Amino acid sequence: MTVRQWSDYINPVVKSIPPSGIRRFFDLAAEMKGVISLGVGEPDFVTPWHIREACIYSLHQGHTAYTSNHGLPELREEIAKYLARKGVQYHPGREILVTVGVSEALDLALRAIICPGDEVIIPTPCYVSYMPGTLMAGGVPVTVATSMDEGFRLTAEKLEAAITPKTKALLLCFPNNPTGAVMDREELLKIAQVVEQHDLLVISDEIYDQLTYTGEHTCFASLPGMRDRTILLNGFSKAYAMTGWRLGYAAAHGDFIAAMTKIHQYTMLCAPITAQMSAIEALRYGETAMRKMVEQYNRRRRLVLHGFKEIGLPCFEPGGAFYAFPYIGDTGLTAEEFAEQLLKEEKVAVIPGDVFGPGGEQCIRCSYASSVEDLTTAIKRMGRFLKKIGKH
Amino acid sequence: MLEILELLQNNSRLTPQQIAVMTGRDEAEVKAIIERLEADKTIIKYFTLVNWEKAGVEKVTALIEVKLTPQRDVGFDAVAERIYRFPEVKTVHLMSGAYDLAVLVEGATMKEVALFVATKLATIENVTSTATHFVLKTYKQDGFIFEDRETDKRLVITP
């Protein structure tokens, strides 16, 4: 009789998924002291005080119970109002679902629509969980690499070329993590045309919508014909500096929300009430604090871009989120080698671009959600590192 | 212009070059704006906010409520000027409500501050009464929290 290893019991799909490349760097960087981290995908601000204070008050009031699976009605109302301002109307009772972060919303969306073998087109570089999430839902991720030359934007032509009879959905994320790329209305309209022609669905992760510095953010669902084809994902982590609260939401046609709610009610049940109470405060009164944070990111964005130019690190201009994605291909090092050596020699932590999929191999992700002082020092150290390895 | 003022108020050590980059302006333009703001006294002075207690320096600060009899033509201004000229006086505000001037006085000891109030402030003509409140601890000043216990709690690397 063959002796089975414990690992033989693990689902082969889960086994086949490599651990996040970010994890290895986390372990490396965590052991070192004095590291300036440009490797964080979250704001350096603490949640604005009035939101935290609202949370404390809600606890005083004894709000500690489950909420409806869909989320607190007051919160869904506020979310619907917010989305209406972005040009798309949703019924707060049937078409909005509050989730445990956008990560859960993404998982629910994929699991609700994907049948085994369905293909999901994912423009890359992209957030680390898109491909594993698709695989775990039984789907097949089809990556479409974008490049620095085209501003890391998806073109309608590239999308069209990737479509097969098995294509079910397109997964978008603009402003983008890790590149900071944004897409304007005209470009998205062309994408929407292809989506309609091929009868596709779109999962649009718009978590960075408020962090758009060049032009106005276009909500994909607000484009003609796209409302009922789109599962719109958003949350509170980035704009309101609420990453640890784990609160997101999905807005879509009632049939999609009903299907997602089924999975949600048998897994998460509901998002934590404390976070939901705080999110109501954020949407009602958080605009000023949020605008101030966004202003600061924008200033740091300029500082970092200027700094990279000074030290001779080519970087396309990110229009959103809080990441710069400079090109390190000229150094002769792989992104991983670059990041590892930079960390060891200059104590600056960045993320190698290849962990975000095809198109990111010769780049590194640098988050500018750090203080001006830290960013200035990090850029100096990176400049020194480039000189050391014989570049510039 | 407001953006430049805000940046400088938050960190007066920012160079015109840094401000230029951060605001997307030309460095010469930023320099010119700052010079103009300094010249017209929109920017009055560049301060360093010091936590003297931490530096081991004992200082006593008192907030003094001052009631005045306003004077014809000059209102409260003439008496206010007589008060704010004293180097011991750090801040003077004209207030609405129960008293007229809020005067912040700094001294080496409580006795020194008390003496100043009794011999200098209270004796000024048209000052009708004073009430002295000693500051026991400063938690926040000019928008800055003195002993901020909130540190960056993020992990070194996050998705």
Automatic annotation (TrEMBL), chain B:
InterPro entries cross-referenced by the UniProt entry: AsnC-type_HTH_dom, Dimeric_a/b-barrel, HTH-Siroheme_Decarb, Tscrpt_reg_AsnC-like, Tscrpt_reg_AsnC/Lrp_C, WH-like_DNA-bd_sf, WH_DNA-bd_sf
The keyword Cytoplasm belongs to this UniProt entry's keyword annotation: no
Boundaries of every HTH asnC-type domain copy: 1-58
GO molecular function, one term: sequence-specific DNA binding
Pfam families in the cross-refs: AsnC_trans_reg, HTH_24
Keywords of this entry: DNA-binding, Transcription, Transcription regulation
Keyword match rRNA processing: no
Protein name: Transcriptional regulator, AsnC family
